[in-house]
Amino acid sequence: MIWFILLGIGIFLLFRFIKQLVNYWVPEQKNRQLKFERLLPVVEGIVWFSWVIWGVQGMFNNKLVYTLIILGIMLVIIVALSWFAIRDFIAGVVLKLEGAFTIGERIKVQALEGRVKELGYFGVKLENFRGEIISIPYHTVSGVTRVQPKSSEAIKNHSFQLDLPKRYTPTESIDKLRELILNTPWASVTKKPYIKLSKENEVCYTFEIIIYSLHPRYFQKTETYLQKWSKKLV
Known about the structure:
Blueprint: H1 2-25, H2 30-59, H3 64-81, H4 83-98, E1 106-109, E2 112-119, E3 123-127, E4 133-137, H5 138-141, E5 156-165, H6 170-182, E6 194-200, E7 204-213, H7 217-232
Antiparallel strand pairs: 1-2, 2-3, 3-4, 5-7, 6-7
Helix pairs in contact: 1-2
């Protein structure tokens, strides 16, 4: 029994050390660090489960019946404690199979409205018109009315001109402008922005831009956003 307890303490200290090592070893590689942080609890759970099985077998002198009974009780407890995660996971699978919504679509769930940014394992992430990311568990999405934007007939357009320093070529500038516009949460996903080089001088290009959105109040936001980005290139 003493070896069983000491082994448990050793496992606990080992994984605490590994976690600190990961945080210190890969501080600049956020994606890699995130993968380690997600993988480590899974590995630790498997190790702890193996530790419990070994301890139960030793406690009952390797009698299979008693071991299976204890493991069955543990399994019921684990399922009960993780029911919320299981419920969200199942609801997410159902919603994805139904094709309820896809990344880039605008949806409305209860009082929340925004563009779908990510479909995770347990929830969906929306980006509202202020650029805030909102996480919604799948079980709250399932069974409620999702209001999607109407057809492109409801989409408004706005045209303006923008002066851009000659840091990039005209083609590169157009690509960057298009990417900036489409990454705003209020831009239309069905109608792409129209961007054309209208004139240029020694220091800057002048682009003619037409943007599309569901409401005119977003036009000034987009124009101001692009003007601020343009000033950063000077």
